[in-house]
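Purpose: get a first structural picture of the assembly so the mutagenesis plan has something to point at.
Setup: two entries, given in the order below. No constraints added.
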Amino acid sequence: MIEHLPVLLVAIPLIAAPIAALLNHGGIAWGLALASAFWALFAAIGLVSQVGEGQVLSYELGGWAAPYGIEYRIDAVNAFVALIVAAIGSVTTIYARRSVAREVEKERLPLFYAAWILSMTGLLGITVTGDVFNVFVFLEISSLSAYALIAMGQDRRALVSAYQYLIMGSVGATFIVIGIGMMYAMTGTLNMADLAERLPPVMDQRTIPVAFAFLAVGFSLKLALFPLHLWLPNAYAFAPSAVTALLASTATKVAVYMMLRFFFTVFGAAFAFDQMQVDLVFLPLALVAIFSMSLVAIFQMNVKRMLAYSSVAQIGYIILGVSMASVTGLTAAIVHLFNHALIKGALFMALGGVFYRIGSVHIEAMRGLGRKMPWTMASFVLAGLSLIGVPLTVGFISKWYLISGALELGWWPVAVLVLITSLLAVVYIWRVVEAAYFKTFAGDDEPVQEAPLGLLLSTWGLVLANFYFGIDATFTTGIAGQAARMLLGGGTP
Amino acid sequence: MEALGLFNYWAVVILMMLGFYTLIARGNLVKKLIGLNIFQTSVFIMYISMGKVTGGTAPILIDGEGSVVYSNPLPHVLILTAIVVGVATLAVGLSLVVRIKEAYGTIEEDVIQDADK
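Result (C-alpha cells, whole complex):
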C-alpha cells in the first residue's frame, strides 16, 4: 500500500471522476470530490514524510523498468507541490458545496464535480510524474477540465474567457509537445532522469536550444508570465468563485513547478542559465509584470479582476526568484508557491462569500459590507495584509527571502522595487477596505447576512494558515530550501 | 537534394505557420479553432516523420527473419495520445463556440467585444 502511494495519489481521483459523472447526483458527486481531495491530501502528506531527508522515491508504473516504462519520481520539490495542490484542493472542495450550488445550475453539478476532480487529478499527475510526455498528458487533462469549469460561470463573458484560455492554453501545450519531440529526436528517451544524462553530449546541436526555447515559451503561457498572461484576468474574473479559488492557487503554481523541473532537472542549471541565459529574458519580464500588473490592479472596479491582475504580479515575484538561480532565490520562489496559494485562495474565497450574498464583486456594490458581513470582510483584510507582506504573515516570509536573495546578488534596485510594489498592493487592498468599512451600505432594504458557515470556516481555515505558516515557517522554508538545493545541485540535496 | 529529403519537415513548418497565422489573424471563432487544429496536426506529422526509418516496417516479430529493420513505434504511439487530446480540445472548443453563439448571437470576435462594452 505505502509503496504504491505515488500512483494511487493520481489513480483514485482519476477513477472517482467518471463515477461522479455517471451517478448523476450533485451531492454524491461532491462527496466523491471531497473524498478524492482528502485522499490526495493523505497521500501527499505520506509522500512528503518519505522524502524528508533528501530521498528520492521512484515508482515504476506496471513494473516496467525506467527508462522504458513510465516512472513516477518523487523528491522534495514535487512532494511539496503535490501537498499544495492537495491541501488547497481539500479546502476549496469543502467550500465548493454551498458556493457552487448557488452559482451553477443543479443539473450540471455532477459534471461540474467530475471536471473539478479531473482538474485536480491532472495537476497532481504533473507533479508526481518523471516522464516528460506524461507531463503533457496530465497538463491537458487539467487544462481541458479547467476550460469547462471556467465556462460554467454565470456571466456570458465566462464563455468567451474560457474560449480565449482554450486557444492560448492549447498553443502553450503544443509548444511544450514540440519541445518534447525535439528532445526525443535527439536523445531517444522521455524519462526525465535519463534525459538529464543523455542531453549534455548533444547540447551543442541547434535542436536542443530550439527545444528549450519552445518549452520556455510554452511554460510561460501556462504560468501566465507577462506578456503571455492575457488569458488569465478574464478567466479568473468570470469563473465560478470556487473555481477561481482552486485554479488561482494551484494551476499556475503547477506550471511553475513544470518549468523548474525542466530547467533545473532535465536541462540543468548550467545549460538554462549560463548557456541559454534565460534569466536575461525572465528577469526583466518578471520586473515588468510585478510593477505594471500591480498598477493595473489599482484601477480595476471588479475586485475579482483586481485580484487576478495581482496574481500575474505575484507570478512575477516567483519568476524573479527563479531568475536569481541561487539557493535563496529559488527558496523564495518555491516558498512563495505555497504562500501565494494560501493568500490568493483565502482572498478569492472571501470574495466568493461576498458574491454568495450580494451577487456582485463590483467595488461599488461592496460599500459598507464591513458592517453587514464582518467575518467575511475581516478574512479578506487579513489575507490582504498577507498579500502585502506584513510581518507575522506568509507574505512577509516570501518577501524576506526574495529581498535577501536580491541583496545577496547585489541587486539593490530589485530589492527596492519589491518594496515599492508591496506599497502598490497596499493601495489596491486599501480601496476594498475603504469601500467596505468607510462607506455606507448602498443596497436595498433586503438585509444582507453573513456568508454561510461552510464558506466562512474554509476561508478562515486558510486565513489562519496564513498566520500559522507566517509565524512558524520552519516547515515551509525547510522543505523549500531543501528543494532549492536539490534543483541547483542536480539531484543531490 | 538535401532540401527535398527534408520534405516532411518543410510540410511541418509550413502547416505550423499557416495554422498559427489563422489562429492569430482570424476573428471568426470557428476559423480560429481550425487554425489551432492545423497547428496541432503539423506537430503530429513532425512526430510521425521522426519515428520513420527508411525501409523500416511495423514492429512485429517475424519468425526466422533476424535482420528486419523496424520503424520506431514510440513516436507514433505518443501521437495517438496527442490526437486524442487534440480531438478533445476541438470538442470543448466547438461546444464553447455553440454556447457563445447562443449567448451573443454571433461568433465574430470583434462583435462580441463590442457587445460586452
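Strands of chain A lie at 57-60, 71-74.
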